[in-house]
Each structure stands twice: as structure tokens, then as C-alpha cells.
From TrEMBL:
SUPFAM superfamilies in the cross-refs: P-loop containing nucleoside triphosphate hydrolases
Family, per entry: Belongs to the ABC transporter superfamily.
Gene3D superfamilies per the UniProt record, alphabetical: P-loop containing nucleotide triphosphate hydrolases
One Pfam family hit: ABC_tran
Natural source organism: Secundilactobacillus similis DSM 23365 = JCM 2765
Official protein name in the record: Phosphate ABC transporter ATP-binding protein
Keyword flag Transport: yes
Sequence ranges assigned to domain ABC transporter in this UniProt record: 4-239
An MF annotation (GO) of this entry: ABC-type amino acid transporter activity
Keywords tagged on the record: ATP-binding, Nucleotide-binding, Transport
Amino acid sequence: MSMIEFHNVEKYYGDYHALHNINLKIDGGETVVLIGPSGSGKSTLIRTINGLETIQKGQLIVNGQDLAEKKTDMNRIRKNVGMVFQHFNLYANKSILENIMLAPRMVLKRPEEENRKIAMDLLDRVDLVNQAEKFPSQLSGGQQQRIAIARSLAMKPKALLFDEPTSALDPEMIDDVLNVMKDIAKDSDMTMLVVTHEMGFAREVANRVIFMADGQILEDDTKEKFFDGQPTNERARQFLGKIITH
Ligand SMILES: Nc1ncnc2c1ncn2[C@@H]1O[C@H](COP(=O)(O)OP(=O)(O)OP(=O)(O)O)[C@@H](O)[C@H]1O
């Protein structure tokens, strides 16, 4: 069984049909980039995976659990599936170190000393070890996003979802965040699903590129086919032409 499986999934917001017949399997260790025009349903799709949005039809299986089943424990899903948001969502009134240590302490009951060591190692990995005692508002957007990534990694998730992680950042900070993400993609067997317009990232580390429009998956290719060959779908080809020339 794959890490994430969508079978004929439909999602509505009231009368609005946001996801149409989504069929998708993502295996452990894959790095998948999800692209498409604004409003095409990319955020909605990834938010269904950790239950931030519910689906109305079809089946969604994450880490072997069927999300539609009443007995499914969403906390267990969220332990295994982390999320990095566009606007970081750090706890403003807690130090950087506390931001990273909080969930492992509360949810995993990780012993304090071990928790601190893991948090400090992660701060080192995102190159912010000297900021441990600061508060989020004292850091730049790019630094806050690297902390948000470290915080997700502290849970040792099997999958990490990224919802436009660099689109709220000033241009000069984007590369630092992408470098951390590339490092994770190359270096771990974690599944990554990334909504982004950063095609450099996709070219370098993605296994697959998925194109969505109007709530549908119109193209699902290997990176090689998508960038070096040609997407089969006309709208995917047009979209790719536009973002690469911009
Ligand atoms: N909570 C909501 N209630 C009603 N409609 C919503 C809600 N969230 C999203 N939508 C609608 O669903 C559609 C898909 O939105 P979604 O945010 O998933 O698109 P997206 O591809 O991630 O877009 P963007 O690149 O602009 O973030 C849009 O038309 C949006 O207006």
C-alpha cells in the first residue's frame, strides 16, 4: 500500500465542487510537486491529507488508515504527516526552541533531554542554532519558515506537506528555505508533497510533477517527462510555458 492513496475523491465547499474525481498514489520516500493556476484546488488537495479539509466522496487512505472511517484517529495521522504553511504559523509567545520542542513533548511524550538535543540538532540543520532563545517576531520570514520546517521534522513524520512555503517570503530569503527543503528531499526517506511555483526545486529534487486545473489532476508525470519531454495535456504545456518564461 502507498503512503497516500486517493480513490475517486470528491470535495465540495457547499455547492462549490473543489476536487473532481481525484485518483492519486504517493509512495513512501517520493518527492512530489503539485502545480497549477490559482484556485485549481492544490491547497484543498493537500489539506485533505491531514484532515484539515474533509472529503465528501471516495476514499482517502493515509499511512494505512482510511480517513472517512469514524474510528480513524486524526491525531495519529497528524503525528505521521506534518505540514508547513505559507505563513509559518509559529507560536508567537513561545521561544524558537519551545516552538520545536512543544509537540514532541505533548504528543510523543519525548523525554526532555532527548527532545532538547533533537531540537538543537534540527536548529543546526536549518542553520539557526544561535536563534534558539529568540521569539518568532524577532526573526525574518525566511528564518521563521526554516523554524517551521524544523518544528515539523521534530515529530519525525513519515510525510511532510508543504503549502506554498516560499510564496510569502521576500525574494532574497527564498533560496535559504528551498535549500533546506532540497536537503530534506535528498537526504531522507520521508514522503514530500509540495505545492510550489518554484520550478528549480521541482527540477532538482522532485520525482514527480502533478498539474491541477479546475479541481482535477490533468497531468502526472515523472520530472524528466514533464520538463525535458512535454506534458501531454495542453493546459499543462501552456502553464509550464508561462511560469518558465516569467
Ligand atoms: N473554505 C472555503 N470555502 C469555500 N471555497 C473555498 C474554500 N477554500 C477554497 N475554496 C475555493 O476552492 C477553490 C480551490 O482553492 P485552493 O485554495 O485549493 O486553490 P489553490 O490551487 O491552492 O489556489 P492558490 O494557488 O491561489 O492558493 C477556489 O476556487 C477557492 O475559492
